[in-house]
């Protein structure tokens, strides 16, 4: 059973701008279009740097480069595996419009021989979420799931039954409480359904914002685990739509897969805030190691 | 009531490689990375060049530029409105891998002053659909809809009730039969649900292939019409996953919107082939003119 202090959402100690997430996604403008970053080992899962974290680093560089602040739609194609350590984000302004501007970015690292290797390439259109009208006609409903105190996090499993082998530093940085209905895989009894649901926050209590939503959509265990697959599920492409600024409080993230075929699957994520607003939608194409 | 010859799927007269669609999406390599195209006025809706047709033009150039033939995942950000006439597609190979290669492309046209204007920018990862294993675990089911002879096309409406004002040349090139359950908008009685479903083919009988799927996902009337909006719904970004080569025969396309908010909506499309296989999935972010 979860202890009380981990079952409840972290109280806000860290703030937007002063948190683990902000420090680890920081980019420094070296010259126009060139941003230095330092990929933290703190956001790795089984030694792979999390794809949502990488997208947040690039998303921050684009927010600095473009005249609009918020990623409305951002697409990343993942090329090679990133490693903790120095990285460079190159940005290009493709078009500047009144309501939206479009940018492109590449995240690159140097290999052992000093050769530059591109890790991901990104296209994005940015706008200003605060400038949008309030009109909401959402037919979607928030996911039905138990309250956090009836959900389970990494700390709740006995040490000898933790299902994620290797280092999973990211688990220490997230407050993630999985719906037990989507947790069969961790007990060796996957449901066969391509669904995963969790309460999501940052462990240091930093509130959610559009940038941290880019992390939230890719932070849950893969739906493939509930479909009976045990191997890793590397992302080929991930597109996120940020639809509104999240209200304070924990987020609910629901991920689903409708089609696992030919060694590939899609993962659709919805992120809901505490005010029952759909704040982000994403879809990724990933490889399934069958 | 539909006449028999339009209610039935066109019999194959045109072939892949010799059809309206192939002629109008043709690209000619001028030099490495530079492809000449000629955007046809035949694929316009209310004077706007269809976004799926534009993606197919760019997708064909990328297929020629990359070592793999099929678009597995292709994302386009639409920058400015394209016009019928000459265009250039610039392609860049981002990464070449064993199973997948990634490319980038821009479609540009010259304005009246001879200045180059970028219309859309595209990132895509290509592979070989024929090389994938046959394994299919799809929890999704094909859309439930009546047979084509109980659905309705542009020809079926009395001329004075046709809902799409202006020129709609694309209607002559598509065989599109809309599910009457999603046709309330055309009679002034939108259902309020963000759903649109249709049988889809090319009017000259050209069989479907991965390239024509890029057109199919963006060829139906917008879901916004069934949500009571009447204005146009310009695409900001469109991502398509092609999951399998379509079997011969008509396609079924189902589009849905879960969230219309702040002047934007997403449109998710699924394309099913005659063998009940989910052959493509797409999502776009579009602006709603409220």
From TrEMBL, chains A, B:
Record Pfam families: 4HBT_3, 4HBT_3C
Domain (Acyl-CoA thioesterase-like C-terminal): residue spans on this chain: 154-286
Top-level taxon in the UniProt lineage: Bacteria
Ranges for domain Acyl-CoA thioesterase-like N-terminal HotDog: 40-125
Coiled coil regions, renumbered to chain: none
Protein's name according to its UniProt entry: TesB-like acyl-CoA thioesterase 3
Lineage of producing organism: Bacteria, Bacillati, Actinomycetota, Actinomycetes, Kitasatosporales
